[in-house]
Amino acid sequence: MADRDLIQGYLADLARRLPAEAVEELADGLEETFQHQLRRGNSPTEAAQVAIAEFGQPAQVTAAFAHQSSGRRTSIALLATAPMFAGLWGTTLITAHAWNWQIAPGAAVAFGATLLTVAATLGIVARSNNPKTARLTGPASIALILLDLGMLATVATAAPAVTWAMALAVPASLLRVVLTGRNLPRLFAR
Amino acid sequence: MRADAQALKGHLDVLLLATLNDGPQHGYAIKEALRDGSGGRFDLPTGTVYPALHRLERAGLISGSWSVVDGRRRRSYQLTAEGHKKLAGERANWREFATAVTTLLEPGPWPTAT
């Protein structure tokens, strides 16, 4: 039963990297491919080898899942727009003299640390070929929403006046909160 | 991915939708339809077709359902109303594009000397 061992070994490799439901679907497709090769006159072992070759290396298949995942696509989109947000909020903080605002130093440090963690997480997901890593985008998105809301609340309570940069940054962040929130169900789905 | 399959980039979604135009299919049958329908030019590694189908399902263009065949659970896909609409739109766009490119590439008559 070398043929079955080959197929089971291949599926076990995929199971370490992919959700069970995806592996079940792939297993059906692999069996179809195997049976097709048997009908073409291949021996069982040859049929298993050809079927596996047709399916692609486990790393290639799992990378395809990672690249097509909502998590990776969302991470890339959030990273692509990050420079614009950094520019808007950086200009806002400078033009509004944020160093004079009454903010607890601990809160500012926590904000900065969370922001760096979110950015690093999104960067890891964007570069990863592991579909399981893409799941990190969900928690990172929630953290980003909280950061946006925290910044908006800070501006509302601590900024002495509205600046032109603030007038651009606030609606931009509100829009990101809404869009990121609407995308959350996809990120936490299979 | 075979060399010719590189040409699929940007067109894979609509080609996958087209393979479902005649009714529900499972992943392996979709991959075979893609290969056979292209005369063997678009022969993707089978395992890489499934994540593309999952993405189309998340986008609401196809819907998947489980059944049991020969004792195995099988997931089949069919076009949604949105998927049919998308396919029709992409077909029209492609025909316009192909007509324009063909017109430019086909050798035309030489201008007559006056």
Structure description:
The complex is a heterodimer of chains A (190) and B (114). Chain A is mostly helical. Chain A has two domains: 2-64, no CATH class; 69-188, no CATH class. Helix content of chain A is 81%, strand content 0%. The model of chain A has no long low-confidence stretch (mean pLDDT 93). Helices cover 50% and strands 16% of the residues of chain B. Chain B starts with 11 loop residues before the first helix and ends in a 9-residue tail after the last helix. Chain B has helices spanning 12-19, 27-37, 46-58, 81-105, and strands at 25-26, 62-69, 72-79. Chain B has a three-stranded antiparallel beta sheet. Chain B has 114 residues and is of the alpha+beta class. In chain B, a hairpin with a 2-residue loop joins strand 2 (62-69) and strand 3. Chain B has one domain: Winged helix-like DNA-binding domain superfamily/Winged helix DNA-binding domain (Arc Repressor Mutant, subunit A), CATH 1.10.10.10. Chain B has four helices and three strands, in the order αβααββα.
Provide a quick synopsis of the model.
The complex is a heterodimer of chains A (190) and B (114). Chain A has eight helices and no strands.
Features:
heterodimer, A: 190 residues, 2 domains, 8 helices, B: 114 residues, alpha+beta, 3-stranded antiparallel β-sheet, 16% strand
User: Radius of gyration of chain B from the CA trace?
Assistant: 18 Å
Uncertain residue ranges of chain B: none
How many structural domains in the coordinates of chain B? 1
SSE series of chain B: HEHHEEH
Task: Indicate how many domains the architecture of chain A comprises.
Answer: 2
